């Protein structure tokens, strides 16, 4: 497969990297202990961000598009930086990271068992849920450091979703229109189910952040419509 126009995405990732380098890290000395419900929630999201991305990179390289593979490596680097930021946020409040969580184990197992297209569809479930979660953490965080870290992660996630949509649109294009609708409808159904699980699992934190389970789930599901359309 020849290069398919990922140069703009590479430049986008590079621009973000330079901006992070110029901005530097937050002032971790300003951290305060997180409320127990928010601490547990952040610990679980930190685990989800903390993969090495090796499987995704391998599949991207196997797709035969050097530009896309390069962009995926940059995406993985940003995800690992999210894990680092969240770990340091926890440490600033004297809270540890956790080694694993069952929800992350399920997502990782599914992703590794699938080809690139299906792995991206599973990954997009986590990314869309993360958009609403980090927005809640940014807007409802109880201290300035938490809000700053959440805002930085959210800014990256807002670029990640269109990036994956771009690839999925190309991947789904060869399918007949009814098949594309079926795939994206199935994706929305899987997202809704995953979102309900997250809403229950993180319910105490969501209430503390001023969102609540029901509102969180409704807003995530509602946001998936335009994203599914972009994939098609």
* H-E order: HHHHHHHHHH
Count of helix runs: 10
Query: How many beta-strand elements?
Result: 0
Class computed from helices, strands and strand pairing: mainly alpha
Which range best describes the helical content: under 10%, 10-25%, 25-40%, 40-55%, 55-70% or over 70%? over 70%
Describe the structure.
The chain is mainly alpha-helical and 232 residues long. The chain has helices at residues 7-23, 36-49, 54-62, 66-92, 102-112, 116-140, 144-172, 177-201, 203-208, 213-231. Helix 4 (66-92) runs antiparallel to helix 7 (144-172), helix 6 (116-140) crosses helix 8 (177-201) and helix 7 (144-172) packs parallel to helix 10 (213-231). It is globular. The protein starts with 6 loop residues before the first helix and ends with a helix. The model has no long low-confidence stretch (mean pLDDT 91).
What secondary-structure arrangement, pairings included, does this model have?
Blueprint: H1 7-23, H2 36-49, H3 54-62, H4 66-92, H5 102-112, H6 116-140, H7 144-172, H8 177-201, H9 203-208, H10 213-231
Helix pairs in contact: 1-4, 2-4, 3-4, 4-7, 5-6, 6-7, 6-8, 6-10, 7-10, 8-10
Give a summary of the structure in a few sentences:
The protein has helices spanning 7-23, 36-49, 54-62, 66-92, 102-112, 116-140, 144-172, 177-201, 203-208, 213-231. By secondary structure, it is an all-alpha fold. The protein is globular.
